[in-house]
Amino acid sequence: DPYSDDPVRHPALKVNSQRPFNAEPPPELLTENYITPNPIFFTRNHLPVPNLDPETYRLHVVGPPEGQSLSLSLNDLYQFPKHEITVTLQCAGNRRSEMTRFKEVKGLEWNTGAISTARWAGARLCDVLAKAGHQLCETEAHVCFEGLDSDPTGTAYGASIPLARAMDPEAEVLLAYEMNGQPLPRDHGFPVRVVVPGVVGARHVKWLGKVSVEPEESYSHWQRRDYKGFSPSVDWDTVDFDSAPSIQELPVQSAITEPKDGETVQSGEVTIKGYAWSGGGRAVVRVDVSLDGGLTWRVAELDGEEQRPGKAWAWRLWQLQASVPAGKKELNIVCKAVDDSYNVQPDTVAPIWNLRGVLSNAWHRVHVCVAP
Ligand code: MTE
Ligand code: MO
Question: What CATH number should be reported for the domain holding residue 212?
Fold first, then answer.
């Protein structure tokens, strides 16, 4: 069993698949803290977790012909300036279960918890690439990452991002060796992973073994045959994966974490809580909440760190205290976020449904009963 060496996990996690391990924190724990504690940070593994020895670990960085290839130990990585940032990581499949409810899709049944936030620290990728002699000359090039996790045929997890993002110091792409002040937990990429702020989780390659600059995107299955969006009209007989760009920056997203769907709330005051985030460093500027299915709206209060313009890498938690009108028997609570490009979420799943169930960001709806 290639999974017998997987680490022990926190019992509060809701498991979507045991082998490979995929799990999310329950909603009420997800927004208890602005920074998600490491043990309950959502986990998305495609393969068994490799058990890597920090003493012998080496990161292979392929240099350009005129430069030099590097074989970096952990200690070598520590010599680069240490950069620390708060970044939210979201899987493209977050909230997929809502798409499934509309029409069947292929993928893990994530609820609202395939998203979490941590303080990540490590070397900036641009510093490491520069050391190997890379420059931003070929603007069309891509930086390919390979994990040290692999399937029985020896194929490793891989993904890529455009070289322009990798070389931009303002994009703050990290080769991270710390998560919330601790060495990375095994499930999250020990000893080194990529963190690409504002970009879909699939590009944050864990257990990083190799970095190279290539004229084309990674040829990995997960870059070319997965993590792409399609029209609702496309099915598995007609899908042409080469016709769509790989997902990089994610669209604006929000969800309600409290109360939970189907719960009974007391009449009088109700507290509604949730998260909101947008890709590409776009800040969340507003979250609207409705108690009547979207007929009338109130603006929620945003908590969490203030964000730097264009570098809003982390989510905002939000809450709204509302009084439940007398005689109400039920509430149809809805939330929707707006980012600083005034992007909004679609009101329903139908027009964004796609066969892989990715990019599920319709208004989030929760139905609760009011105790008499
Ligand atoms: N990196 C490797 N090597 N193997 C993987 O299976 N999964 C990716 C990405 N990096 C993956 C990987 C996906 S799809 C996501 S959403 C994130 O890791 C999840 O990161 P987390 O498990 O730390 O939350
Ligand atoms: Mo993912």
Answer: 3.90.420.10
